[in-house]
Automatic annotation (TrEMBL):
Family (UniProt): Belongs to the short-chain dehydrogenases/reductases (SDR) family.
Lineage start: Bacteria, Bacillati, Actinomycetota, Actinomycetes, Mycobacteriales
SUPFAM superfamilies assigned: NAD(P)-binding Rossmann-fold domains
Xref: InterPro entries: KR_dom (IPR057326), NAD(P)-bd_dom_sf (IPR036291), Sc_DH/Rdtase_CS (IPR020904), SDR_fam (IPR002347)
Ketoreductase domain location: 7-193
SMART domains: PKS_KR
Organism of derivation: Mycobacterium dioxanotrophicus
Sections of the chain in a coiled coil: none
Taxonomy, superkingdom: Bacteria
A GO term for molecular function: oxidoreductase activity
Keywords, in A-Z order: Oxidoreductase
Record protein name field: Acetoin dehydrogenase
């Protein structure tokens, strides 16, 4: 894909799923990669695949919730490559549980990774992206950042927050005339390990939930998702909807306004195993 040759791209959560596919597609397109994850085994697989392509790669264990480590990491990437052009704040986790039965700890954990991880990555890299003269922040939200469903209050909160944070940032960069583009990504169901890695509130079986997700909800491959995301980055889109489900559901929400809540709660009660 054009537009990525020689760019230094940072991808968090690059050991699996969308992050791994993004890193590989960026590598194929001529970018130099800085990849990270808490899953060092998955990360090593991505690193090997990038090396096989011949793409320059720096791989590090990084927990996106650790703010100081993220700041140090940003400095180390700039030191390694001399600049950084793009950050893909992709690392994320899923959790299912109604508000009534979810612990504060569970809700905070989702916010820490899915929202604060994005804030940490954006703020740690922003000065370097501005200094590059050609920067891009790509923050991964979800279709659950566009509408809410029962059982996903924690995840919805984090993904709505990512959307607000990123849409404000895009406008700020433009007003300040900073050379940094900003894109929010809203994937629909993507065939990754997210549901298999997910946790759930007491009384729910995460494995059963994962089966439903894998069978009924995940219909776009991570490779296809990566291509769609990178095409949107290349075109400097403010928002990218990934997959036919994301496009359709976005239209339903626009047409029905808050009425979508009645429709979606009925639909979810038919899909979910509880
Ligand atoms: N798969 C989907 O259907 C879907 C839909 C919408 C949004 N998303 C979002 O896409 C992003 C990527 O998810 P995926 O589907 O590829 O899932 P995945 O589970 O396959 O990959 C997520 C990666 O993030 C890593 N990670 C988790 N916590 C971390 C932390 N604290 N620090 C660093 N790395 C961490 C995991 O180890 C894993 O390698 C997430 O933000 C997710 O919320 C996914």
């Amino acid at each position: 894909m054009e537009g990525f040759a020689g760019k230094v791209a940072v991808v968090t959560g690059a050991g699996s799923g969308i992050g791994q596919a993004l890193a590989i597609e960026l590598g194929r397109s001529g970018a130099k990669l800085a990849i990270s994850d808490v899953d060092t085994e998955g990360l090593a697989v991505t690193e090997e695949r990038l090396k096989a392509i011949g793409a320059p790669v720096k791989a590090d264990r990084l927990d996106v919730t650790e703010r100081e480590a993220f700041e140090l990491y940003a400095g180390s990437v700039v030191e390694h490559y001399g600049k950084v052009n793009q950050i893909y704040n992709n690392a994320g986790i899923a959790f299912t549980g109604d508000v009534e039965v979810s612990s504060y700890k569970d809700i905070e954990r989702v916010m820490d990774v899915d929202f604060w991880g994005v804030v940490n990555g954006t703020k740690a890299f922003l000065p370097h992206l501005i200094a590059s003269g050609d920067g891009h922040v790509v923050n991964v939200s979800s279709i659950f950042g566009l509408f809410a469903v029962p059982g996903q209050a924690a995840y919805n909160s984090a993904k709505f927050a990512v959307r607000g944070f990123t849409e404000a940032l895009r406008q700020e960069m433009a007003l300040a005339k900073h050379p940094v583009k900003v894109t929010t990504v809203h994937p629909g169901g993507i065939k990754t390990a997210i549901a298999r890695n997910a946790t759930a509130a007491e009384g729910l079986d995460p494995q059963e939930l994962a089966k439903v997700f894998d069978k009924k909800l995940a219909n776009t491959t991570p490779q296809r998702a990566a291509k769609i995301i990178l095409e949107a980055v290349r075109k400097n889109k403010a928002r990218v909807l990934v997959g036919p489900d994301a496009k359709l559901l976005d239209i339903v929400v626009r047409i029905t306004g808050s009425g979508y809540q009645r429709l979606f709660s009925t639909a979810m009660s038919r899909i979910l195993p509880y």
